[in-house]
Amino acid sequence: MLISKPRRRAVAALASAAFGLALLTGCGDDVSCGLDQCTVSIARETNASVSVLGVEAKFVSADENTVTLDIGGEQIQLTKGQQAVDVGGLQVQLESVTADQIQIEVARP
Fold first, then answer.
1. pLDDT band at 50 (very low <50, low <70, confident <90, very high)
2. Which of 10, 39, 43, 64 is exposed most, by the fewest CB atoms within 10 A?
3. d(Cα 16, Cα 90) in Å, to the nearest integer?
4. Cα–Cα distance between 61 and 56 in angstroms, integer?
5. Keywords in UniProt for this one (predicted)?
6. pLDDT at 20 over 50
7. Number of folded domains that form the chain
8. What DSSP line would sit under 30-88, residue for residue?
9. Widest CA span of the chain, in angstroms?
10. Domain range enclosing 30
């Protein structure tokens, strides 16, 4: 069976959209995802964690400019204004720190 060019394009577009949605698996209420990256909010409390792009990010500690996280079993420190850090196959950058939560950006390189 032959498929016309317009129909092949539609099938390719649907396959691409399905792949994009698969990348977003694990995005929950505390995670807002686009095609290339996710913005993640984590409560500033002991044992707070969130799953993003198949990796778990856990809050460890924070002060007003620096956050320590456990991402995929590896502890990292992030500082406001610092470039993204590569960890667990992802790039992670600190966006903000408040009294209640931290916000990070997570992207696939």
1. confident
2. 64
3. 21
4. 16
5. Signal
6. no
7. 1
8. TEEE-SSEEEEEEESSTT-EEEETTEEEEEEEE-SSEEEEEETTEEEEEETTPPPEEET
9. 63
10. 5-107
